[in-house]
Fold:
Amino acid sequence: MLSKSLTISGSSTVVFDKVFTNAGDAYDSKTGIFRAPVKGLYYFHCTFLSVGTKLHLILMKNNNRLTYGHSQKDRDAGSMTGTLALEMGDKVFIQHYPTGSEVLHDSYSSFTGYLISTFGR
Structure:
């Protein structure tokens, strides 16, 4: 979750700095990046609320855009979900789509992910 509202621009990574559970320390609250600790199937979900602007975000896997989420106006909510097959070390994160400066509302914006099952070698 965000501890305070966040203004983002360019292709910035959204850093969700308020962490409730981080079993295995796969999520880095300083960079906003989740690194898969093991090869497996993972689930990710992001919800967000814009403040004063539209908002455009992307669920990223390494350098690949997977899905987009947006809100159209002030105090509009959006979300993104993905079930991903990851290799150990793959990175998953939320990136801003470069449309100008936009604002995410603090406690209404969150990012979660967890391992569903591991894959054999």
In short: The chain has a mean pLDDT of 92. Residues 15 and 30 are 7 Å apart (CA to CA). The first strand starts at residue 6 and ends at 8. Strands lie at 6-8, 27-28, 33-35, 40-49, 55-61, 64-71, 77-86, 91-96, 102-104, 110-118.
